[in-house]
Structures are given as structure tokens and as C-alpha cells.
Design a protein that fits this description.
Helix content: 40-55%
Radius of gyration: 19 Å
Distance between the termini: 21 Å
Order of helices and strands: HHHEEHHHEHHEEHEHHEEH
Largest sheet: 3 strands, antiparallel
Structural class: mainly alpha
Mean pLDDT: 90
Strand content: 5-15%
Strand order of the largest sheet: 3-5-4
């Protein structure tokens, strides 16, 4: 039996501003795709910061890791998720940043393959380590050691390629949110507890959670913990945030019960719709 191919490293080359530049360019290429070299040539011609890179290989590989692009006969193009994002919340830069954070945080869960690590698994584990560190925070070396230990426990005695650069590949997106999710004090990384999640972030992560049950979920302890890790907010502060958000949206219905429930009512944003419907279908295919 072939052993799973574990990938733990989150590339630090995939910076928010560069990801946004590449996403914008790809949003305007033919749907049948374009070669990486041609995209690089175009980026130089239009004066994009991407043109200063020697090539786009690592950047595009990271975009493929989170499911934004796919390989075609012609090279690469936006995936269905990427096209939906371009038509919705990803049409503006901060929305793109929030969406990439969401994709990184949830894709391993959506994929449903608990035997194989991915950059999304590592991303979620870094979130968990930062949240669990409390007010004292955690430095990159501690995160690396803890992640390696968890990986060996979850996946067996495997070679874990994860470093401080990998941690940077996560924190650059946490710092890039419109309200940063982390702050740094010296070498330590701490939750930015003064930041209340923005409405777009709550929409994305509630949709991500609803995808598991085709649009309706019970907010049990496990689900609340997943949301808390995504926002880097302790669970005891999260419930009131969700209740306040639900009062101002038609997309989600919050039902007070024991435990509480959330129902997805539909969205005019194509990416929110994609999260709930496409990830739900993926999970059902994996479980059959």
C-alpha cells in the first residue's frame, strides 16, 4: 500500500500583496488557462510587483495548495473556487485576504482525508498553538517543536518538514487581515485580543462550518473550538459575537437552543455559496 504524501510546509513566499496581484491577473486570463511564464511576462509588461520575482512557481504552487487555481492543458487558470471568489468577496483586496485565511484554515477539514497532512493542516495547527498560548504568547521555535510533536502523534513516525519559515507562511496572513489576528512582542506571537472579527470574516467561517452539514450546524464544543481557532478568539467570547452578527444578516439564522444552531439561508455572494455547497459535496463524496 502506497504511503500518504505528507506536506507540512506553508510557503512564506505566498505573501498577501503578491497573492492579490497574481489573483487579479489570473482573473483576466482566458478560462482555458495560461502558462506560468506567460503570466510572468504579462506581469512585467503591466508593471506588477510580480515582475520583480525570478519566476512565479512557488507563488502559484501556494495558490494551488489552497484551491484557488488548477492546472489546465494551457498551464493554469482559476479553479471554480477562484472564479467564485473573483465574482464575490474577492473582488476587493481585503476580502481576498480574508478568503485565503479561510481557505487555509478549513481546506484540510473539507478534504476529509485525516491520514494525510497538508499545508492547511499545518496552518490550522499553528492557529491552535497561538490560541492555546494565552496571554504569554509563543515564539516560532516553540510552534515548530509542538507541531512536529503533534504531527508525529497524528500521522506516525514521518519526516516533518516544518520550520520558522513555515510559521512565517502562516503569520503573514494573520497579520494581513484588515484587523490583524496576531501581534508580535519581540520574538513572541500573541493573539490580538483587541480585534473583534469583521463581518466578512464571520460570514466566511460560519459558511465554512456549515459546509460540513449542508447548511445547518449545531454549535457544539467541537464546532465552537474550530471557530475560535479561526478567529483566534476564546470560545467564551465567541457566542455573543455570533449572536450580534446574526441579528444584522439575512445569510445566517442563529437559533438559541441547547446547544445553539446556525442555519445558512443562502447568499448573493458566489464564494459564500461555493463554500457551503461545494465543500459539502466534497465531504459527502469522501464519506461514501
Amino acid at each position: 500500500m502506497k504511503s500518504p504524501r505528507h506536506v507540512f510546509h506553508t510557503r512564506h513566499d505566498f505573501k498577501p500583496s503578491l497573492g492579490w496581484e497574481a489573483f487579479q491577473l489570473l482573473s483576466n486570463v482566458p478560462p482555458d488557462g495560461i502558462s506560468a511564464s506567460s503570466l510572468h511576462t504579462i506581469s512585467k509588461a503591466v508593471g506588477s510587483p510580480l515582475g520583480r520575482l525570478s519566476n512565479l512557481t512557488k507563488l502559484l504552487a501556494s495558490m494551488q495548495d489552497v484551491g484557488l487555481i488548477e492546472k489546465t492543458r494551457e498551464g493554469i487558470s482559476l479553479s471554480k473556487a477562484g472564479r467564485s471568489l473573483a465574482k464575490g468577496i474577492g473582488s476587493y483586496e481585503t476580502g481576498f485576504y480574508a478568503a485565503v485565511h479561510c481557505l487555509y484554515a478549513w481546506k484540510w477539514i473539507w478534504d476529509g482525508d485525516k491520514k494525510t497532512a497538508s499545508p492547511s493542516w499545518s496552518y490550522r495547527e499553528v492557529l491552535r498553538q497561538i490560541l492555546n498560548s494565552g496571554s504569554i504568547g509563543v515564539d516560532s521555535d516553540e510552534i515548530v517543536l509542538r507541531l512536529v510533536s503533534v504531527a508525529e502523534e497524528d500521522f506516525g513516525k514521518v519526516k516533518v518538514s516544518f520550520s520558522r519559515a513555515s510559521v512565517s507562511g502562516v503569520t503573514v496572513w494573520l497579520e494581513g487581515q484588515v484587523l490583524p489576528l496576531v501581534k508580535k512582542e519581540g520574538k513572541r506571537i500573541l493573539c490580538q485580543n483587541s480585534s473583534i472579527p469583521m463581518a466578512d470574516a464571520i460570514r466566511l467561517h460560519l459558511a465554512a462550518l456549515c459546509s460540513d452539514k449542508k447548511g445547518e450546524i449545531v454549535l457544539d464544543d467541537e464546532k465552537m473550538q474550530l471557530l475560535a481557532e479561526s478567529f483566534l478568539v476564546q470560545t467564551d467570547k465567541l457566542l455573543s459575537l455570533l449572536e450580534d452578527f446574526a441579528r444584522d444578516t439575512d445569510e445566517f439564522l442563529f437559533i438559541s437552543s441547547v446547544p445553539n444552531r446556525v442555519v445558512f439561508n443562502g447568499s448573493e455572494d458566489p464564494f459564500i455559496e461555493w463554500i457551503v455547497k461545494e465543500a459539502s459535496e466534497l465531504n459527502s463524496e469522501v464519506s461514501e
